[in-house]
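Researcher: Last one for today. Full complex below.
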Amino acid sequence: MAGPNDEFHVYDTTLRDGAQREGISYSVTDKLAVARLLDGLGVGFIEGGWPGALPKDTEFFARAAAGDLELAHAQLVAFGATRRAGVRVEDDPQVKALLDSQAPVVTLVAKSDLRHVERALRTDAEENLRMVHDTVKFLKDHGRRVFLDAEHFFDGYAFSPDTALRVLESAVEGGADVVVLCDTNGGQLPLGLAETVAEVVEKTGFRVGIHCQDDTSCAVANTIAAVQAGATHVQCTANGYGERAGNADLFAVVGNLVTKLGMEVLPTGALAELTRVSHALAEIANIAPDTHQAYVGSSAFAHKAGLHASAIKVDPELYNHIVPEAVGNDMRVLVTEMAGRASIELKGREFGLDLAGRGTEVGSALQRVKELESKGWSFEAADASLELLLRAELSELDGPPPFALESYRVVLDHRSDGEIVSEATVKVHVAGQRVIATAEGNGPVHALDAALRKALLPHLSWLDTVELADYKVRILTEHPKQGMHGTDAVTRVLVESTDGEREWTTVGVHGNIVEASWLALRDALAHKSMRASTPV
Amino acid sequence: MAGPNDEFHVYDTTLRDGAQREGISYSVTDKLAVARLLDGLGVGFIEGGWPGALPKDTEFFARAAAGDLELAHAQLVAFGATRRAGVRVEDDPQVKALLDSQAPVVTLVAKSDLRHVERALRTDAEENLRMVHDTVKFLKDHGRRVFLDAEHFFDGYAFSPDTALRVLESAVEGGADVVVLCDTNGGQLPLGLAETVAEVVEKTGFRVGIHCQDDTSCAVANTIAAVQAGATHVQCTANGYGERAGNADLFAVVGNLVTKLGMEVLPTGALAELTRVSHALAEIANIAPDTHQAYVGSSAFAHKAGLHASAIKVDPELYNHIVPEAVGNDMRVLVTEMAGRASIELKGREFGLDLAGRGTEVGSALQRVKELESKGWSFEAADASLELLLRAELSELDGPPPFALESYRVVLDHRSDGEIVSEATVKVHVAGQRVIATAEGNGPVHALDAALRKALLPHLSWLDTVELADYKVRILTEHPKQGMHGTDAVTRVLVESTDGEREWTTVGVHGNIVEASWLALRDALAHKSMRASTPV
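Model: Here's the assembly. Have a good evening.
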């Protein structure tokens, strides 16, 4: 069943194609969070992954089907391949997995470049056409809506236009209602691509989509050019994340379509959320936001002094290509202070907090978050720290913290034999006692974590299952450096902890990396303690 | 006098427009280094800055004129504005400064949007035309080649095409031989921009250039589209650095022109230097290279496992839009190991080392550099560390290091009153003695630096003038994390030192931030000591 705005498709593949970017590794929890953010923005389609091929993707669809993902705007899409050559579609387990995902929409990728058909698939053009037709029809017969990703389309069309077009025909005959022309190798430039798109639209009359890669640094431009040439379905990823040079950036594409081409491709009010959503998705991906990203970067509207500043004082519109607030951004050169009242309320509800009638407290929590964010704190990917903060502001924390720190000392020895030894001693108050413990580690933070654990374990039974799963450090260069000549750049540490059943992330920010780590570790244990005593 | 390849202009404005990027602050030394790199790549024009308006730019041109900058390919360009309204050109000191710079080429920026003429300049269209004509002619009469930057051209042309075109005419009548259409606000999209460029070329017959900003994420695409529509002069910056969302990336523009449009816009062999030069310029700017940058990013040709990997094994050409080695890149997912024999030799000569007939030693120095670079070391911006390494490999270090470290200890106390205290103790051997010194600091690194200084100052007189000028830390996320669950991410520290006369930068890399800082500090002092004893 088509969604409300079926005339133009904003199709996001952050969770599938975008997830192929080096360094990205989404947990299933991450994927659900990403999907919710995209849905909140109002995209029409969320390609959630490749069920059957990637275990975390299979699980993601299962949890979505089980009700863990409520989508208000988007339809979930399962991505997969046409049946294998020489195999009957009903016997192909990968195709079955697409059905099992229960996604209402399926996108199938098929070769549309003869050289790929012959060399990569090792089959012939005719079998390839049958593979396309069979698989599309099979899924249609089972009630799915089907799109076709025509892989390597532009290269294939240049090499053998007939082959490429017949692949599209085969899909449409099988029941696919959008054929997406993919610049898989990313080598296209806008003028030539637009010509090809216009030609295909004219020759076939099919509903055409576009999927661009950024290898020539033209992905966004190519996508827009394709729309101007007749495409009505655009495939993008958040912040252009993707393999190699990446994909077309969802936010730039949408920003351009709405503000330059006057196309209302998102629900009312969604455009103003662009900046916030871009940053939130970057945090989940654990990638530093690109401060110079079009539309949403924190520097996107920041003009340096000089030629422009005098004119801006006269008339800001003289130098801004759009009004920054339209995309939720602004002209000030500040770090992201993206916490808005609405998102605090949203978060609170996620944490099971009852916020009805508590406007003042929510307001003060918001102030606290903004204050911290201006110093480099970021809660987008540190839900557990945010929950602790909210509960504290709302006086919803039951009981005292599980332990109190009296002091710690971290010693780093570069010994005369050249060996580097890290040792930490903590003095804490726990379960009514004062405990001192010392431990060594691979480095100062590891030593501190080990000492803390040593001190607390005998007294806090739940600590036994808690483990440091991941540790991320980022130097915040956009923050003014404190200390002498920058030796204490503000550092943000994210700690992901696990107890075998769930994972939670906490954050710490300080000019000193060890202290920043301490803050994140402390919150990690406080959160576990809170959950251990508060049934959720 | 026009350069050898005057048919097509590759015009770089890294040092002027690109320098307006937030966070960039080039010293004069940096500017000279940037210019040499760009010249080595073979660009036709290097816009060096705005003499008269910015002191460091004035100094840069002065040093270039004094012989500190030898250009093999490029012509140096001074950027500036047309004379002020109501002032005679010969009386305008800013225009005189352009002449004084002695740059053979001058680019003048002029308003071509009527609204800007009236609201920002507060004058009328006629006076604006006289300002353009007078200034161009004045500079031509003084033997300069003149280009015109028509600011806000596309917006201006859409608002009042006649005004915009008359500005171009006025410049050409004055003697300008290229009129550059600037998308100053960055709001253009490729198809519309190409139409406008074609129209202007057709209506005027002038030689047209293009200057794009990246606010719609289309700067590169717009630049290429403009060339296809008749522009023969492209203005870019290294890595797209610039104000707001940045400028058109020189490397993507050149990569596209050469490999997609078959235009030989660089000297033979230059294309293969693209990746190395891109990274070197990033280091000088102290900006982390974009691993996903088109053509030159370390991930630009890195394919993730899955759909593509199997095909790559079959045929790499099936999935690469170009051969990576053509731009000096490769398919392996590795950090940049860009040190090539040629650059080592080049560097050696810069350091005053005689490398004739020392091929084996150069080879082993290269190996050492590559080995270190694979672990996260980068010497592009740490010339002093590189010089020490080369001299060591070539046995060109006179005498022993100025001091030897026996051990150090750094203690970080988070005290019971909440205060964070950092203290360091060093034990060193210097001037035949064993010295122990302890000092405190704002953080562990500052404390270590203070303690070292305290220990050495009484024994090394030259240390008195040495100061820590800048300290940069970067966590190298592209390196496999060592230690437990990432608590010891490889950290790179760059230390810039000064003695009041010169500045030098050293680097240290280690899983432990304090040890990484130690290595950089040690090199900083060793380099000063070497210079103090070796007259250069």
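The first strand of chain A starts at residue 9 and ends at 12. Chain A has 17 helices and 14 strands.
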